[in-house]
């Protein structure tokens, strides 16, 4: 963490903190059972794994080639909660990889730190307040009244005023430095000057009244916030007050989006079998809301060689592809991953929509999430694979799952989890229509996605909900 003053020994140590240690702290805090208070949520304490009736996830097994996994795809598909856990673990593994590949915590200017996680404790670089200061507009007085009032007053931001002598007072503004030997501040509404200009108190003034003593809030070197704290607007304010110009934070993971498909138009009306690209405009801000920095969006058509080149040339932490995940004649994602020797960690997920989604490790510290082309299926892939991966890379704690009863019955898939857009009304979740894989009409009106277990859910049944990043109105909402 850098600041105007030279770092103390404690700060210098803090700068050595690794992202792994930040993650460990964040995870520790998560394990304390802290619950998220949504004001509407009823947390049953169930994890997403238990809520969906799936096995507790195991770490990914040994590397499997894209080819071997492509056969027998449905049986090999990963249960939904386990897929989320594998994505989080993959990010943790990337962070504990070789130091060369790791992105170290870095100092960033305050205005670039919002929504990131502190990688060093916020330690006060000064006493706060840093000098004795007046808490009110009025007079600084010395000894008992009445007092002779000096001609010239003391304003905030001025140099140290002359000491007061017993029986003397000086006009003072809120936030101004207290003159030495002041015994109290008399508020303007509690004092009156007589015709000779002498000041009288209208009520008893206690010793030290309305003086904020130096160090009242903290002493130089006190720890104000621990490693792992999310940088909120309030944290930025505290950091500035405590003397910081930059904060050392876990860097935003870098994401690159590769939009595949020859059928996509970037403007105008759909025509002659061509359709508008819905994912190019949707994914970058969504990924930003999940904490990523989007370094590029490339439209590659259905060109296998262009896809190979783009993946191998990328230096993003996460490459996100759209479309081309199935087994059609121009679905190039699997063959390309196989060709470049990527390791498939998730090859299909038992979730609807979105079951062809995939997660691969391209290099030690680089992953690829393959989103299916159907737009709501792509959203499902974002929530299932990209969200846990990005959140873990950014050292953000996992949001506590919460549950609400469903207002209306929802049909389920016989074996797979379903994700359904819902709006939250009072104490229940109302399922939205237009939730087919190719449709965005439901999700565009939604507050959250409800997790429907295999077999469906009846009206009144409590379902796990995942807020859409903007609906939760949290600090994670960071579209810039
Ligand atoms: N024989 C089978 N065919 C399909 C299966 C299957 O199991 N067996 N699964 C279906 C499911 S489910 C999905 S989802 C899709 C996944 O397909 P891909 O990931 O290969 O995606 P594409 O074929 O490229 O596109 C699917 C669909 O989405 C439209 N699309 C693609 N990109 C965009 C975009 N950027 N904006 C708007 N719409 C987009 C595309 O035009 C297609 O209509 O496979 C099924 N097939
Ligand atoms: O993933 Mo597909 O969109 O389930 O239909």
TrEMBL record:
<dbReference type="Pfam" id="PF03454">
    <property type="entry name" value="MoeA_C"/>
</dbReference>
<dbReference type="Pfam" id="PF00994">
    <property type="entry name" value="MoCF_biosynth"/>
</dbReference>
<dbReference type="GO" id="GO:0006777">
    <property type="term" value="P:Mo-molybdopterin cofactor biosynthetic process"/>
</dbReference>
<dbReference type="InterPro" id="IPR038987">
    <property type="entry name" value="MoeA-like"/>
</dbReference>
<comment type="pathway">
    <text>Cofactor biosynthesis; molybdopterin biosynthesis.</text>
</comment>
<dbReference type="InterPro" id="IPR005111">
    <property type="entry name" value="MoeA_C_domain_IV"/>
</dbReference>
<feature type="region of interest" description="Disordered">
    <location>
        <begin position="1"/>
        <end position="107"/>
    </location>
</feature>
<feature type="compositionally biased region" description="Low complexity">
    <location>
        <begin position="81"/>
        <end position="107"/>
    </location>
</feature>
<dbReference type="GO" id="GO:0061599">
    <property type="term" value="F:molybdopterin molybdotransferase activity"/>
</dbReference>
<dbReference type="InterPro" id="IPR001453">
    <property type="entry name" value="MoaB/Mog_dom"/>
</dbReference>
<dbReference type="Pfam" id="PF03453">
    <property type="entry name" value="MoeA_N"/>
</dbReference>
<dbReference type="InterPro" id="IPR036688">
    <property type="entry name" value="MoeA_C_domain_IV_sf"/>
</dbReference>
<keyword id="KW-0479">Metal-binding</keyword>
<feature type="compositionally biased region" description="Basic and acidic residues">
    <location>
        <begin position="27"/>
        <end position="52"/>
    </location>
</feature>
<comment type="function">
    <text>Catalyzes the insertion of molybdate into adenylated molybdopterin with the concomitant release of AMP.</text>
</comment>
<comment type="similarity">
    <text>Belongs to the MoeA family.</text>
</comment>
<dbReference type="InterPro" id="IPR036425">
    <property type="entry name" value="MoaB/Mog-like_dom_sf"/>
</dbReference>
<dbReference type="InterPro" id="IPR036135">
    <property type="entry name" value="MoeA_linker/N_sf"/>
</dbReference>
<dbReference type="InterPro" id="IPR005110">
    <property type="entry name" value="MoeA_linker/N"/>
</dbReference>
<keyword id="KW-0500">Molybdenum</keyword>
<feature type="domain" description="MoaB/Mog">
    <location>
        <begin position="256"/>
        <end position="392"/>
    </location>
</feature>
<keyword id="KW-0808">Transferase</keyword>
<keyword id="KW-0501">Molybdenum cofactor biosynthesis</keyword>
<dbReference type="GO" id="GO:0046872">
    <property type="term" value="F:metal ion binding"/>
</dbReference>
<protein>
    <recommendedName>
        <fullName>Molybdopterin molybdenumtransferase</fullName>
        <ecNumber>2.10.1.1</ecNumber>
    </recommendedName>
</protein>
<keyword id="KW-0460">Magnesium</keyword>
<dbReference type="GO" id="GO:0005829">
    <property type="term" value="C:cytosol"/>
</dbReference>
């Amino acid at each position: 963490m850098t600041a105007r003053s030279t770092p103390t020994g404690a700060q210098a140590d803090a700068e050595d903190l690794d992202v792994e240690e930040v993650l460990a702290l964040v995870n520790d805090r998560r394990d304390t059972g802290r619950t998220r208070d949504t004001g509407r949520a009823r947390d049953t304490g169930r994890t997403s794994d238990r809520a969906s009736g799936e096995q507790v996830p195991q770490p990914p097994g040994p590397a499997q080639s894209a080819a071997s996994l492509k056969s027998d795809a449905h049986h090999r598909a990963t249960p939904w909660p386990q897929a989320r856990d594998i994505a989080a673990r993959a990010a943790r593994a990337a962070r504990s990889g070789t130091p060369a590949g790791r992105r170290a915590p870095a100092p960033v200017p305050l205005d670039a730190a919002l929504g990131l996680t502190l990688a060093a404790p916020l330690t006060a670089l000064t006493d706060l307040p840093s000098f004795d200061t007046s808490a009110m507009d009025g007079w600084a007085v010395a000894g008992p009244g009445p007092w002779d009032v000096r001609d010239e007053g003391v304003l905030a931001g001025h140099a140290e005023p002359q000491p007061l002598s017993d029986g003397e007072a000086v006009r003072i503004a809120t936030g101004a430095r207290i003159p030495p030997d002041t015994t109290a501040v008399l508020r303007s509404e509690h004092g009156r000057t007589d015709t000779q200009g002498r000041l009288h108190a209208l009520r008893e003034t206690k010793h030290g009244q309305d003086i904020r003593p130096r160090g009242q809030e903290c002493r130089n070197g006190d720890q104000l916030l621990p490693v792992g704290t999310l940088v909120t607007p309030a944290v930025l304010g505290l950091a500035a007050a405590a003397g910081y110009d930059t904060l050392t934070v876990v860097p935003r993971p870098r994401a690159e989006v590769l939009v595949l498909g020859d059928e996509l138009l970037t403007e105008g009306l759909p025509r002659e079998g061509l359709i508008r690209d819905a994912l190019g405009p949707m994914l970058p801000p969504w990924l930003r809301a999940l904490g990523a920095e989007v370094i590029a969006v490339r439209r590659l058509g259905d060109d296998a060689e262009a896809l190979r080149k783009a993946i191998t040339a990328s230096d993003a932490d996460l490459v996100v592809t759209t479309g081309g995940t199935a087994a059609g004649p121009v679905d190039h994602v699997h063959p390309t991953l196989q060709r470049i020797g990527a390791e498939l960690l998730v090859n299909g997920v038992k979730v609807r929509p979105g079951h062809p989604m995939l997660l691969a490790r391209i290099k030690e510290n680089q992953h690829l999430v393959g989103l299916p082309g159907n737009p709501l299926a792509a959203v499902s892939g974002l929530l299932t694979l990209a969200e846990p991966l990005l959140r873990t890379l950014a050292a953000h704690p996992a949001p506590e799952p919460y549950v609400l009863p469903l207002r209306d019955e929802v049909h389920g898939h016989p074996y797979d989890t379903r994700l359904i857009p819902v709006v939250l009304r009072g104490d229940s979740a109302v399922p939205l229509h237009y939730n087919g894989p190719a449709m965005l009409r439901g999700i565009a009106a939604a507050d959250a996605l409800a997790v429907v277990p295999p077999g469906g859910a009846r009206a009144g049944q409590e379902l796990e909900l995942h807020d859409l990043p903007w609906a939760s109105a949290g600090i994670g909402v960071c579209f810039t």
